[in-house]
Amino acid sequence: MIPCGPGGLPCLRKSRSSRDPLSFREEGRREEAIEQRLRPPGGHETASGILLEVGALASDPIMEEIPLERQRVYEGRILNLRVDTVRLPSGRTALREIVEHRGAVAIVPILADGRVVLVRQFRYAVGQVSLEIPAGTLEPGEEPLACARRELEEETGYQAARWERLGAIWPTPGYSTEEITLFIARDLTPGPARPEFDEALSVIPMSWSEIWEAIEEGRLRDAKSIVALAWAARRLGGR
């Protein structure tokens, strides 16, 4: 008994063990409802967090990370770098290093004989010559199709009368905002290439069998090109 009443009279404070059994059942139902709300459909809880099963929703508000602070640490010509402090679903905080990119396009140009126009260029970041499809970065305010037309002509000299949008991909969503829109270009007309001053490219038409062989042998390793070529082959009925 604890003196808490008028004049110091003792009063009883109900302990947890003395609570009505119904209140325990109600609390248990509330806790169960909260757990169900926190657990994404198709997922189960593990020691380190929530694991989604195959077929579960790709996004869920419960899994979102909330930005708390943002610091720009570098501004460049084609990309910026920032460091964000975020609140995790668990309530803890973490740092996210983000490359800001205004987006890009990549094109699968199809010649009249069915071959695909690719380019070879030196990629300084990996220190090697890379075999790729034509691609480039969006200018500020530029629409993807306009960029695709410009990049195709600049890098290969070809102009296309028929354009088909395949879709868009995130090449590295773990740390970059870049989105690449993919196109098929057909009914090509050749012309002079006009690469940028810092680009040295060679144009190489390849058959589909040569492309798959180059991928298998590791001579074509550019991820956006592999995705776009596979997508285009499926769209064209399998090549």
Automatic annotation (TrEMBL):
<keyword id="KW-0378">Hydrolase</keyword>
<dbReference type="GO" id="GO:0019693">
    <property type="term" value="P:ribose phosphate metabolic process"/>
</dbReference>
<feature type="domain" description="Nudix hydrolase">
    <location>
        <begin position="100"/>
        <end position="233"/>
    </location>
</feature>
<dbReference type="GO" id="GO:0005829">
    <property type="term" value="C:cytosol"/>
</dbReference>
<feature type="region of interest" description="Disordered">
    <location>
        <begin position="1"/>
        <end position="46"/>
    </location>
</feature>
<dbReference type="GO" id="GO:0006753">
    <property type="term" value="P:nucleoside phosphate metabolic process"/>
</dbReference>
<feature type="compositionally biased region" description="Basic and acidic residues">
    <location>
        <begin position="17"/>
        <end position="38"/>
    </location>
</feature>
<dbReference type="GO" id="GO:0016787">
    <property type="term" value="F:hydrolase activity"/>
</dbReference>
<protein>
    <submittedName>
        <fullName>Methanol dehydrogenase activator</fullName>
        <ecNumber>3.-.-.-</ecNumber>
    </submittedName>
</protein>
<dbReference type="Pfam" id="PF00293">
    <property type="entry name" value="NUDIX"/>
</dbReference>
<dbReference type="InterPro" id="IPR015797">
    <property type="entry name" value="NUDIX_hydrolase-like_dom_sf"/>
</dbReference>
<dbReference type="InterPro" id="IPR020084">
    <property type="entry name" value="NUDIX_hydrolase_CS"/>
</dbReference>
<dbReference type="InterPro" id="IPR000086">
    <property type="entry name" value="NUDIX_hydrolase_dom"/>
</dbReference>
